C-alpha cells in the first residue's frame, strides 16, 4: 500500500467522523435550545397568565426556527458522511 492510499483512507474516515459529530452536536444544541425556550415561556406564563396565548405563539415560532436551523445542520452533517 502506498503512502497516498493510506492518507486518502485516513482523510475519508475523518470526513465521516466529522460529519457524524457535527450532526450529533447540532441535534444536542437544538434540544438544549428548545428546552431553554420552553423554560422561558413557562416562567413568562407563570408571571403573566393573561398573556399566555401570545407567549405560547412566540415560543412555538422560535422553537420552529431553532429546529429549522438544526435540521439544516444535520442534513449538512449527513451529506458529509454520505458523500465521503
What would you note in describing this structure?
- This protein has 84 residues and is mainly α.
- It has one domain: F1F0 ATP synthase subunit C (F1FO ATP Synthase, Up-down Bundle), CATH 1.20.20.
- Helix content is 92%, strand content 0%.
- It has helices spanning 3-47, 52-83.
- α1 (3-47) runs antiparallel to α2 (52-83).
- The protein is rod-shaped and about 70 Å long.
- The model has no long low-confidence stretch (mean pLDDT 89).
Please tell me the overall pLDDT. Answer: 89
Radius of gyration: 20 Å
Number of helices: 2
Largest β-sheet summary: none
The end-to-end span amounts to: 21 Å
The CATH class is identified as: Mainly Alpha
Strand content bin: under 5%
CATH fold name: F1FO ATP Synthase
Helix content class = over 70%
Which class of secondary structure composition applies to the elements? mainly alpha
Amino acid at each position: 500500500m502506498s503512502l497516498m492510499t493510506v492518507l486518502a483512507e485516513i482523510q475519508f474516515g475523518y470526513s465521516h467522523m466529522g460529519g457524524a459529530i457535527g450532526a450529533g452536536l447540532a441535534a444536542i444544541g437544538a434540544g438544549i435550545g428548545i428546552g431553554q425556550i420552553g423554560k422561558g415561556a413557562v416562567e413568562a406564563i407563570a408571571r403573566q397568565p393573561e398573556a399566555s396565548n401570545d407567549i405560547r405563539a412566540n415560543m412555538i415560532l422560535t422553537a420552529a426556527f431553532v429546529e429549522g436551523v438544526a435540521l439544516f445542520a444535520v442534513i449538512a452533517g449527513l451529506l458529509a458522511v454520505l458523500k465521503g
